């Protein structure tokens, strides 16, 4: 049965392309990709020649029906993004939803994801975590998003562009206050680095940092503060009822 294959690609180190990923790219009839030049380079490195269909956040209205038609005509299609898993802070979710709605099999392969590399080496709790992806670019909206996460007790993972890292950490410090964190950059690449400390420490050096970055932030470890008014009204209720 023709299927949609979700194929992760390396986040830096080309050796992390899996054997199965390559087998699927060899097998499918076409590859839907974010940037045909980037995917072209990856395929060139492995000597794979396949028709590419451009599928990115600005052309989904045209590309999704085109890919669904190809699947309905009996073609196998692979989806890749520029790096890591498609759909994770990358295009593909509408396409998968359409396949699911139309009973077209969707098969995902194992592989690279920057968030997980950063999380497992961060030194922070991995028992429960939230992958948030990118915060809003505007500080006012970003702070609102952070406020909604401020009491979350588990580790939170953010993606951020290097030119926004300082402003983003400033907002994190303001809304979350100072917490343990790890900034993981250039994962799987030559200059891979994990900077562990607290938000204040990393904020003070982050303007000098370059490359791709993941922020892993400790969850809120403070016990919920008792709502004093609520407690008083409960006591008053008890007294009134003669307890
Ligand atoms: N789909 C990708 C994944 O599964 O990880 C994420 C794509 S998202 C558009 C790009 C963001 O991922 C970057 O801004 C950065 O936060 C993070 N990222 C990707 N590659 C990375 C790397 N090698 N080192 C650190 N962060 C990386």
UniProtKB/TrEMBL annotation:
Keywords: Cytoplasm, Methyltransferase, rRNA processing, S-adenosyl-L-methionine, Transferase. This is Ribosomal RNA small subunit methyltransferase I. It is found in: Cytoplasm. GO terms for cellular component: cytoplasm. InterPro entries: 4pyrrol_Mease (IPR000878), 4pyrrol_Methylase_sf (IPR035996), 4pyrrole_Mease_sub1 (IPR014777), 4pyrrole_Mease_sub2 (IPR014776), rRNA_ssu_MeTfrase_I (IPR008189), SAM_MeTrfase_RsmI_CS (IPR018063). The keyword rRNA processing applies. It is an enzyme of class 2 (transferase). It comes from Floccifex porci. Catalyzes the 2'-O-methylation of the ribose of cytidine 1402 (C1402) in 16S rRNA. It holds the Pfam family TP_methylase. Its EC number is 2.1.1.198.
């Amino acid at each position: 049965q023709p299927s949609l294959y979700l194929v992760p690609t390396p986040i830096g180190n080309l050796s992390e392309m899996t054997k199965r990923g390559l087998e699927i790219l060899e097998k499918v009839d076409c590859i839907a990709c974010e940037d045909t030049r980037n995917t072209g380079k990856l395929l060139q490195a492995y000597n794979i020649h396949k028709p590419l269909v451009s599928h990115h956040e600005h052309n989904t209205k045209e590309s999704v029906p085109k890919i669904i038609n190809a699947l309905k005509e009996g073609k196998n299609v692979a989806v890749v993004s520029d790096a890591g898993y498609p759909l994770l802070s990358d295009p593909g979710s509408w396409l998968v939803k359409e396949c699911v709605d139309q009973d077209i099999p969707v098969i995902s392969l194992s592989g690279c994801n920057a968030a997980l590399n950063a999380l497992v080496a961060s030194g922070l709790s991995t028992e429960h975590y939230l992958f948030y992806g990118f915060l809003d670019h505007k500080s006012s909206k970003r702070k609102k998003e952070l406020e909604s996460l401020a009491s979350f007790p588990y580790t939170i993972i953010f993606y951020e562009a290097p030119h926004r890292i300082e402003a983003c950490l400033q907002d994190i410090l303001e809304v979350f206050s100072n917490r343990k964190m790890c900034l993981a950059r250039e994962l799987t690449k030559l200059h891979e680095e994990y900077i562990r400390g607290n938000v204040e420490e990393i904020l003070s050096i982050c303007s000098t940092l370059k490359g791709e970055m993941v922020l892993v932030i400790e969850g809120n470890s403070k016990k919920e503060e008792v709502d004093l008014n609520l407690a008083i009204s409960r006591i008053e209720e008890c007294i009134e009822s003669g307890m």
